[in-house]
Task: structure prediction
Amino acid sequence: MIKSILGRCIFIATLLIAIAMSTCTQPSGKNENNTSNPSPWWKEAVIYQIYPRSFRDADGDGIGDLRGIIEELDYIKSLGVDAVWLNPIYPSPNADNGYDVSDYRGIMAEFGTMKDFDEMLKGMHDRGIRLIMDVVVNHSSDEHEWFKQSRSSRDNPYRSYYHWWPAEKGKPNYRYSLFDETGNAWRYDSLTDAYYLHYFSYKQPDLNWENPQLRQEVYDIMEFWAKKGVDGFRLDAFQFVAKDTAFPPFPEGFEKDFIAYYAMQGNIHEYLKEMHLRVLAPYKVMSVAEGAGRNFEDAHNLVDPERKELDMAYAFEGVDIAKYDGYSLLHFKEVFSRWDSAFAEKGWLSVFLANHDQARMVSRFANDTPAFRSASAKMLHTFLLSMRGTPYCYYGDELGMTNIGFSRIEQFKDIVAINSYKKALSKGEDMDLFMKKLSFESRDNGRTPMQWNDSPHAGFSSGTPWLPVNNNYTEINAAAQDKDPDSVLNHFRRMVQLRKSNPVLVHGAYQLLAPEHPEIYAYTRIWGEEKAVVVLNFSTEKQRFQMPGLSSPTKVLINNYPHVETTKNGGEIILSPYQGIVFSVTP
Ligand code: NOJ
Result:
């Protein structure tokens, strides 16, 4: 058995044949993702996502705020990330924690003031960190002045900022609402005897993008933030903005295939081109859409550069794989490989396994038991930061924060949890099973306060946190991990630096190795003369991994265990549970 120390060059003469013999070729010809093209900053960036409500509370009201973020800017800088994506910080009645905006040009009082915002943005820029703001314009809050006006009378000038259906025409054709407790996207409003449309909760009426005046308002709002110096926009639920406003009937059961009927309708591309011309191009802000449409064609149409719409796709197929009853690594590999190959030559993807709409990454995709949490969280970071595309890290995942696993409905705060519970109850579903799934999948799992240290409330707040802190904060927290060179946090930092110093990990062509292996995910990245091989064990067992053939000098670039174990004859690597290694290979 050969053992070598982390980071030390090792030469495994009989290993890694696949690497050199790999059929993986540098895509040639007209490839916008090749070495000769200058790379925009967002392709080489690592993005850190902050859910402001849960990140850091500076004023002790139990709710995270902008001053809390300001206090932690050096921590964010220490991660090595290039940009922060901030979930909405605008005034909101908080039916959906800020995704129901009542004033697009303000700051939610609980989060602070515009002065705080300006200071935060400057603090980020001073540290070389860019800011991406969430733009929530598929819908507003029902407490936005536009909606107040719109509902006040049928002839109000703001009436057509939203979708109304006069009751004298009878009931509108059924539309499905993702968040409504009955699932119905039409809500009757007696004030004007009409129904309004809300794909999310009734507190989030959908804006009417067919109205050019509304579109100009949105571009003005984006311009307002662009002029302040923000560097990018994430377009919330944007694939749903355009609708067939005749609202024709849909076939029975259509709502089970929500995306097919709701995504990428009508004039969406015209709207995006208009937005590009009016705001994105002149202010040189990057843009990422939430969702990537119904298929690769849709996804490409959103982000192919010559179309001049958006920059980066954010597709859900990968993050959606993990379910309450598990997932298959074969499926996972197939999905990530398929998306990579569809974007190999053109367009650009986001790479992520978590965000504020998901439970914790390590609990869903790996193993949050004490024996494996740390290794498996590091292994997932090795994966995310060695794939092509722009990696996103959701706050707390750099520590390996885990699901809190609420078990009683009274513990949940999220509108989705509460309304889907009501819906399931009224439909007579198996509520034990429902609660088990909710406990595993709920968005609240991913929104518990950041675990800063082992003081009360994990140092998140001196008050009572709006959502409880996970009890494991005494063990899992930033202060402890900062001091421990072997922590998930320090592995994350090393992995970010590795990506930055090895462009092959950003741009290199990807090829899956051993596609049939049920527990190992291995792939090559090739960029000009540079080659990297990533080998990840997604299981609790040791796994042998054979790479057919050859003698190539290899170097361990990063390893979440101290050693690389090989079989006696050197023909195979033996990976420990959740071991993840990146090798560089000299051709
Ligand atoms: C997608 C956001 O990510 C989610 O948090 C929100 O609830 C919906 N859009 C509605 O805005």
User: Anything to note?
Assistant: Residues 1-30 have pLDDT under 50 and may be disordered. The first strand starts at residue 9 and ends at 10. Residues 270 and 373 are 46 Å apart (CA to CA).
